[in-house]
Amino acid sequence: MNNTLEAIHLLEDKLKSLLSNYEFLKNENQILLQNNTALQHQVLESKQELIAQKKDFDLLKIAKTIEGSSTNTKDTKLKINTLIREIDKCIIQLQE
């Protein structure tokens, strides 16, 4: 009878320990999920900022070429032609 009671108490202690560990891990998981979400948001913002900076750089290159710099003339002409085609596509879509 005594061994049975000891086994039951030991089982209860182990269950309490498991429940405690479960709650700790559950809380830690929640914190990690929040951190993950925050980091994903930061990555998305960084990507958007990088895209904006690349566009600004391209515009600066175009402006420098138009200004008289001969280094990126071909690239600028190609970019202007691409922009004109995109504008033409938009106009066609608006007319439909």
From TrEMBL:
<feature type="coiled-coil region">
    <location>
        <begin position="1"/>
        <end position="42"/>
    </location>
</feature>
<protein>
    <recommendedName>
        <fullName>Phenylalanyl-tRNA synthetase subunit beta</fullName>
    </recommendedName>
</protein>
<keyword id="KW-0175">Coiled coil</keyword>
